UniProtKB/TrEMBL annotation:
Cross-referenced InterPro entries: 6-hairpin_glycosidase_sf, Glyco_hydro_76, MUG_Protein
Top-rank taxon, per record: Eukaryota
Residues making up the signal peptide according to the UniProt record: 1-22
UniProt lineage: Eukaryota, Fungi, Dikarya, Ascomycota, Pezizomycotina
Protein name as it appears in the record: Glycoside hydrolase family 76 protein
Pfam family, one: Glyco_hydro_76
Protein's organism: Cudoniella acicularis
Alphabetized UniProt keyword annotations: Signal
One BP term from GO: carbohydrate metabolic process
PANTHER family reported in the protein's UniProt record: ENDO MANNANASE, GH76 FAMILY (EUROFUNG), MEIOTICALLY UP-REGULATED GENE 191 PROTEIN
Length: 389
């Protein structure tokens, strides 16, 4: 999902508003404070975030763009980080090896060297992904290039697209992202809307009958070699990416029926993956490794998109409750945020856990309409918050 994460930047960059004066620190929102701490890991040499991997860095970048889109204080930081990362990251495209366990979980190994007996991955070719241009059109061109790379990939026996270039697995995340990119481009490239929309609709038609969406409206991890639902873990990010994709598809077609499925999945996921206080969890917690720590934020980010297309009080409560819980129970004195959003704060916090929690704080800030959604840092420290019951 590495390249596709970077695609999301396109929409964000295009939606940045005018630069405003910085707000005083005393009035910083929780999301701004969390961003400050995230940036302690930002490495301007690599354009990536130390302590985390390649696709996670795409998510860090996306979070900054998303916050800048609703909070003008953050725009100068976003501009600086985007222009650095778009140039530097391609020079440090990290070699990673991902392995599917027998229970269909993904294990990631960081290069450049790998455990014996493991075949090193092919050298990553960042072809077309990054070039020397900073303007928005080039970001969009990059997204179109990535889309074409996927579109031209060999077919799978199950339909849809492969997860990997070695063709070992057909799974939900790659297919949801492909759908999402197609739908986003349909709304952003008027000259080729027909082409992107047709691809996205085909992908949608395939996805809903692929077997990955189970009878509870939850999405399992992927398909078996016989093209059946593999009953793999119901991860939060697989319930999330589809929400943004369906919201875009609804906009592109003017057909709101896509939002029915989105609402069904969102509600099923909130019910299945929340604790009794309404706080989101993934089954891996607290040992979610390098990838799983990122997932919940992806759900929140896409729920925020769905909220705009199909507003729901339940979603608003959920976003605010999760943001408030993170701030109250999952934070240390530096404003580092960790993996278990209901708390307690567990080591280690890193750029993956931080950016994921940041996504939730951004969603909370967004549904409250910017600064007015400030979760009241001071009062939160003084008294326990009331969570959604
Ligand atoms: C913080 O914001 C409030 C409300 O907008 C304002 O009244 C107050 O003066 C601000 N505080 C500082 C330190 O700027
Ligand atoms: C920043 O990234 C560069 C390039 O990967 C690396 O050599 C350097 O050690 C990193 N800096 C820190 C503080 O990790
Ligand atoms: C539309 O997409 C096709 C296929 O990727 C490409 O060949 C063509 O140049 C695109 N046209 C425009 C106007 O972007
Ligand atoms: C998944 O679970 C369903 C229902 O329990 C079962 O019918 C199906 O055979 C299982 N599939 C696999 C691949 O284990
Ligand atoms: C809207 O989309 C749904 C789902 O693909 C489809 O069944 C329905 O026919 C569409 N309605 C219109 C008016 O195109
Ligand atoms: C980031 O922190 C999480 C949660 O503590 C941990 O599982 C993961 O391994 C860490 N990532 C790295 C690359 O150390």
């Amino acid at each position: 999902m590495l390249s596709l994460s970077f695609f999301r930047l396109v929409s964000v960059v295009l939606s940045l508003g005018p630069i405003a004066l910085s707000a005083p620190v005393a009035n910083s929102t929780e999301a701004e404070l969390a961003l400050n701490f995230l940036q302690t890991w930002y490495n301007s040499t690599s354009g990536l975030w130390d302590t985390t991997g390649w696709w996670n860095s795409g998510n860090c970048l996306t979070a900054i763009g998303d916050l800048a889109a609703i909070d003008s204080t953050v725009v100068p930081t976003a501009q600086q980080v985007f222009s650095t990362t778009i140039v530097q990251a391609q020079k440090y495209n990290l070699q990673q090896l991902k392995v599917i366990t027998p229970t269909f979980n993904i294990q990631t190994f960081q290069g450049p060297s790998f455990p014996d007996a493991m075949e090193a991955p092919a050298v990553v070719n960042p072809r077309g992904f990054l070039n020397g241009y900073y303007d928005d059109e080039q970001y969009l061109q990059t997204a179109m290039d990535i889309f074409n790379d996927i579109k031209n990939s060999p077919a799978t026996p199950c339909g849809g697209i492969w997860w990997d270039k070695k063709h070992t697995y057909v799974n939900a995340i790659a297919n949801e992202l492909y759908l999402s990119v197609g739908a986003h481009l349909a709304n952003r490239v008027p000259a080729n809307k027909t082409f992107y929309l047709a691809t996205a609709q085909n992908q949608y038609n395939w996805f809903v009958q692929s077997g990955m969406v189970n009878s509870k409206n939850l999405i399992n991890d992927g398909l078996t070699t016989a093209c059946k639902n593999n009953n793999g873990t119901v991860w939060s990010y697989n319930q999330g990416v589809i929400l943004g994709a369906l919201s875009e598809l609804s906009t592109a077609t003017g057909n709101s029926s896509y939002l029915t499925l989105a609402n069904n999945i969102a509600n099923a996921a909130i019910t299945a993956l929340s604790d009794s206080n309404g706080i989101l969890h993934d089954p891996c917690e607290p040992n979610c490794g390098g990838d799983g720590t990122q997932f919940k934020g992806i759900f929140m980010r896409n729920l925020q998109v769905l909220q705009k297309a199909a507003p729901s009080d339940r979603y608003v409560k959920f976003m605010v409750s999760n943001g408030a819980s993170i701030w109250a129970y999952d934070r240390d004195s530096r404003n580092a945020l960790s993996v278990v959003w209901s708390g307690p704060f567990v080591q280690t916090a890193n750029a993956s856990t931080q950016s994921s929690a940041l996504d939730a704080l951004i969603a909370a800030q967004a549904v409250g309409g910017g600064k007015t959604a400030n979760l009241a840092i001071a009062s939160r420290r003084a008294k326990p918050i009331v969570l959604e019951g």
